[in-house]
């Protein structure tokens, strides 16, 4: 069976090389750029959804720096650097304006792409993400202790797979079969523990409160109703803060892309249609 996608190695001047996976889609179709969650990669987060999206869109996906086949992580992990990496890829490929589709921490990167590279963003699809994740007292304590966890992880490098399981395991739904969990964890173990923790530190420090209300491109927010990692009310607050944002709600936890790929794809289809079609409803609930 012929693959529906192909990989290309893209060299970015002054940054290094990154592998970009592409599902070509129909000729002249809008371009989606898929951005994965922390401790994940393109294969884990998007391999089940991307082929379905590629029936209507040209789909690009790349691993964030320090993850999978992304650019090497140099110094502290910064979401701004990730947004700039994606922009450099788009400029090198000459894609024109695209629709970043960001999941979890990838949704934060997508928000930063609009802030830092507005000419490259035609719309936004933000899934299982928020304006910030440090509002409650417990979350603020977690954010303050994260730098120490990153430092400790660098000392525990030989035990990184065990530590990575402790970080990655809770991100996966309990409804996954043992085989699904084994495959997902095998991919997630490729991300060094220190980088996974540093990426979480960056997420804890992220906030778009001051500027997200100025977003001027069509936006859809996919809310995972039973999310244990990013509270659904946070996701809805993000949608409420973006002018005219469309809300697409789906049943599922933070690992819905593996636990219920069909439901995840249906939600993404609604969201992508909402930001690419000329007429959109004010609110949509995916079937």
Helix content class: 40-55%
CATH architecture: 3-Layer(aba) Sandwich
Q: What is the mean predicted local confidence, pLDDT? A: 86
* CATH secondary-structure class: Alpha Beta
Oligomer: single chain
Protein described:
With 287 residues, this protein is of the alpha/beta class. The protein has one domain: 3-Layer(aba) Sandwich (Rossmann fold). It is 41% helix and 16% strand. It is built from eleven helices and nine strands. Strands 1-2-4-3-5-6-7-8-9 form a nine-stranded mixed beta sheet, sandwiched between helices. A hairpin with a 3-residue loop joins β1 and β2. α5 (137-155) runs antiparallel to α8 and α6 (160-168) runs parallel beside α8 (193-205). Mean pLDDT is 86; it is low at 137-163 and 278-284.
């Amino acid at each position: 069976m012929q693959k529906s996608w192909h990989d290309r190695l893209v060299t970015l001047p002054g940054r290094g090389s990154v592998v970009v996976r592409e599902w070509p889609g129909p000729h002249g179709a809008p371009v989606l750029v898929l951005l994965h969650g922390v401790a994940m990669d393109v294969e884990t987060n998007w391999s089940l959804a991307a082929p379905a999206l590629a029936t209507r869109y040209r789909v690009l996906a790349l691993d964030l720096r320090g993850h999978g086949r992304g650019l090497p992580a140099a110094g502290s992990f910064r979401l701004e650097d990730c947004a700039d990496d994606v922009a450099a890829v788009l400029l090198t490929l000459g894609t024109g304006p695209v629709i970043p589709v960001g999941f979890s921490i990838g949704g934060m990167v997508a928000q930063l792409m609009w802030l830092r590279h507005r000419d490259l963003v035609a719309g936004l699809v933000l899934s299982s993400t928020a304006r910030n994740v440090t509002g409650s007292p417990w979350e603020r304590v977690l954010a303050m202790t994260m730098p120490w966890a990153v430092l400790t992880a660098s000392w525990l490098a030989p035990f990184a797979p065990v530590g990575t399981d402790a970080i990655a395991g809770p991100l996966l739904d309990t409804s996954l079969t043992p085989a699904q969990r084994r495959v997902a964890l095998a991919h997630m173990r490729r991300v060094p523990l220190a980088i996974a923790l540093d990426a979480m530190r960056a997420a804890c420090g992220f906030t778009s409160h001051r500027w997200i209300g100025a977003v001027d491109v069509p936006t859809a927010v996919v809310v995972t109703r039973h999310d244990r990692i990013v509270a659904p009310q946070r996701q809805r607050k993000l949608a409420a803060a973006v002018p005219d944002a469309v809300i697409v709600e789906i049943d599922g936890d933070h690992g819905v892309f593996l636990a219920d790929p069909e439901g995840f794809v249906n939600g993404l289809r609604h969201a992508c249609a909402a930001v690419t079609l000329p007429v959109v409803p004010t609110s949509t609930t995916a079937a």
